[in-house]
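Methods — Computational structure assignment.
A single polypeptide chain was analysed. Its primary sequence is given first, followed by the predicted tertiary structure written as structure tokens.
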Amino acid sequence: MKKITLFLIFFLTFSFSYSQTDCPSGEILDCNGNCAPAGWVGDQYCDDGSYTHNGVPIFFNCEEFECDGGDCNCDGDPEIPSFCDSGDCDLLTFVVNTANIEVGPNGMYAGGGFFDSATAVPLYENDPVSNDGFYVGSVYVNTGQSGYFIYLNSPESSTDYGAKENLTGQSCAYGEFDDRYLPPVDGDIVLEHCFGSCEEDGSCPGSGGNGDGDGDGSSCENAIPITAGTYYVDGIDGESEPLQCHEGNQAPPNGNMEWYSYTPSENYTVTVESYNSQVDDTRFQVYGGSCDNLYCVGGDDDSGVSSYSSDTFDVVAGNTYYIAWDDGQASWEDFEFTLTEFEIPDNCTWTLNMYDSYGDGWVDGWGNSLMVQIWITDTTGNSYSIGGGSLDDGYSGSETFEVPIGSTVSTLWIGAAADGSESSYEIVDSNGTVVAAASEADVGGIVVNSDCSGLTDGGSGEPGCGDYYEYDYGSGFSGGSNFAENYTGPNPNHLVFSTTAGDQDNDGITDEITVTLGGNTENNYDWVYITDGAGNLLYGPVSGVQSGSYTSTDGTINVYLAADITIHEGPVTFDISCAGLSISDNNIADLRIYPNPVSDNYVTIVSSLSGDKFVELFDINGRKVLSTSISGDILDVSSLESGFYMTRVTIDGKSSTSKLIIN
């Protein structure tokens, strides 16, 4: 084993600066002030952090306990772990500055990537007396070793990657999991970093604090300069600014504030998000302008997970923005936040072509106007409306609209059905290709490619895999109170749509297709029934409330509705999914919201994912009207007016967007 230089011996002097004052009966304070059973001293097991008590690594390997009662060898330096399996090894030393975070009770580690463990390399506090915030640790690796790694703050186990630093959107984030990258090692090297940031000299871009002087966060003029990265807020006691920029409840007024300044080098879309708060409730404002003439840019109260804060906004290169956290509602003074930069994508010009077979424009049977609304889900996961189109008169018309590259386009059909389904539309990409078409229905899942073309998995006429279809049916000449008992087989005149899954995953096997029902028909008179491709009855006939999910194993599903000539209700909704359809890792594949439409003030939101559900609702103008977190499955929508809403649900970092109708 190679000897460690005097420089490294100094760095590897270790101790943790956490302490408690009292322990339960039978327990004592270890070298770091953490409680552990007194019987662990001298029990023939070396307590050097290898064993935990109540989830906390325990250390008795210090002079106070005579090297764990002789169980440990306290002579010399801590043993250096080795990931070298050849005869040619180099010493890799990590030095990480933790000034922007509070190190948890389990300590700091380097790991992940080629180490294949969250606790591969323990890092020890460099100077616990001065508390300089540096943690240091070494490991032997093969000469030429390269690959990904990451720093982790207080992981609970070797698989706890939830403790890793957040580098998303930064220049030093590599690979699928946004890790750091180690170039091929050629000789002993020392890596110097800042936790959660890309600096390579061991410095951190603003470490918080509340003393007097420039850059201490005590006022707009003394804001702490930051770049993209993770920052720890330890105390909020700076000057207040009365201007409120966050949406939602404006009371109480802003309290004390902690100020940060951010000056981007390029135009970006930026997300600021808090987490790891002991009370999980934060609030911030984002200002532009000068300190004596501020204006609102962004801000948030409770739009993050649980009651954390999150907002996304655009910034211009060279302009300075002020991010101010305040304690107006509670003492929110111990949390972390991240600032993430996203490149602003170029826009493409697409076209909405509108048609009406009767030539009287988009109106229903009662003369009410109909319209289609365009929705964008951008590369940061935000959904918003960019307006829509309506055909006031005549047989056809068109409008153009801008869509960002990399975004996903969907539509929302607003209004009842016209007589005979006369109204239709199509979406044409920049290359002149029709990428979606529908008649009085929604389409979704249209991805904007880098060449401004569109890629869709459904929505061209008949609803397809991944589509949500709403059918506001008209009167017919069938149905009636005896329809179900007289049913003998499907009638082609009742067909609403027929959809085939195809082979979405290209495995040579036709995929299963599932339709999930919502809405209602006139009870006892209007009936829905579903068959597979062979005509086998999968559902119905059922009148009244429509619900449940039904799967065709032969890959084709046929949906029928038989209505009588008198009163009709509706709409009826159909959510279509295919077994082989590729789902983004960031989407909730099995999210269900019902009843839909809703009439009794409450909807149920279910998914196989566990955890709190963060729910956002947007009206037809794209305005956020509800933002809340629920721990169960029931969402109260009693405060919302009747109408059409886009609903975004986030669980454990995954999101799904769908439509909700409130009657």
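Note: Residues 1-20, 207-213, 457-461, 581-585 have pLDDT under 50 and may be disordered.
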